[in-house]
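Table S2 (continued). Query chain:
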Amino acid sequence: MSELTTVARKPAPLPDEGAVSTRSFVFPLSVYARVLELQSGRVDYMHYGVFESPEDNVRVAQERASALMWQALPPPPGRILEVGIGLGTTLARLKAAGYAPFGITPDAQQAAFARQRHGQDLPLDVVRLEDFAGHQGPWQTLLFQESAQYIDPLAIFDAAHRLLGEGPATLVVMDEFALKRESDEHRGLHRLDHFCALAARWGWRLTLRTELSRKAQPSLSYMQRNMRTWAEQLRTELQLAPGQLAELDAALQQYWQRYEEGLYGYALLRFERAQRPAERLVAVEQGHAAQAQALFAQVFGHTMSPAHWHWKYGEGRGRAIGLLREGVMVAHYGGVTRRVSCFGQPALACQVCDVMVAPGANTALQRRGPVYQVGATFLEREIGWGQPHRVGFGFPSQRAFGVAQRQGLYEAVDSIVRVSWPAADTRAPRRRVERLGAPDAQGQATLTPRQRQEIDGLWQAMAAAFPHLVLGVRDAAWVQHRYLSHPTLHYQVLLLRRPWTRRPVGLLVMRLHEQHLELLDLVGPPEAFAELVAQARREAQAAGLARVEAWITQSQQACLSSIDPAACSVVPLGITVPANVHTPGPVEELRDRWFLLGGDADFT
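Corresponding output:
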């Protein structure tokens, strides 16, 4: 979109008031379309141009981009589904060229504009790709021209699986992509390498890749410069709010800079496949819950109830990728969102869990087998720079970690040890003990407002003491959900208070086993840890149990092993704390910097 000589021209006439005009498009498409009309007299495309020289006319550059896209299409006749029709120009030309095309768009105004310009019989529907029923299929080709960036890549390939025929098929994508990410600020746009890798997992072979970044970049300069030229008219005609154009100008400048730095790019891709594969990757949602629970029972030998599944994954708390083979789930890779204090700053972490493969489905544990497919797909969607979760962690067994490490998914940054003490009535000061979670009138174990406030204060003191570490948030909301609202396990949650002032000292969470008391969590400043451990030892003695056991990351074990060291023992558990290395993100920063206890696991 660049006509670098921005000489002001006589404004193009506005459409009749009764007609559908570009002014009715959603912002910022309304700005882009109107700038093209004002500067060139007509707008046929909404996509970038491909510039061979700075003197190129923007319409020439757009036609050149369109011509490149046409070269990637299979020859007519053929049934083509165009996803995102823009102004309908390509759809009308596909029809005239002898194809059997159909277009879909979620934008009713663009659809009306396209029919107004190219005829009411233009074959299209106003619908999202994810919701399109394919009533004109089966299709042979899917075409995306600057529309793929707005659709989840997994949804794109799932739609291709659903809509395209059983035999040979083609997928053409011309769009912007992220070429790399180097910080958490680098969000937006699909990673090009991840997009191509996901295509391969769906059975697609990349047969054409044309790099167009430098030739497409002038489109940004064109739009930014001419938007400034026509700023006053744009504000008036489009009834823009104060500051909207300035914000859009800044966004265009940022995009241009990211092209300069090699963070963003533009590419034409053609994928081909010989036949529809038997396997299908899916984002696991409520409709897949029963299959995920059945696989869990098959792999782990005990059931996960619907209530437990909802507690873990429901209401957006967890996400997962599943692999369906002929409609049956044979692999699953899950993760739960955890708010963390990451070196003193709030962030989101993903606790990986429920990594499972049906017996016999992945016997060789090959790199491209089910474990890798679900794991790599999950990590590319969820963890790393610019992803929903900055970091990931988990508690894999040595075997599971070894598989993921060989596949290039994980790297070790810490490990878990077990610290234990004999049950005893120690000399530590006795505190007033308040047992939390008494059932309310509805039978629910719920914290009182005062308890919530006090636990939040204890958490804030704990977080302030560890600004150099990464630790999961342990506020009242966490305590309520993780422990008091657990659907299957019962925990003892104790709040220790000073006897006279009743001020809270700290909170501890315990679970009684046949031979020992498991100390799962501590909330409070580290100077309170000794008193909390002492109370756990008293509780164990009162319950007739032999010892208290606690898990903690090896790098932070001194927080617990320094408490009554003569009575304390430390044993490595063979559990590695992993970091994701499949996608770019912080890794070295996490080494020996995790503060994890037993309650940070999802299965304890």
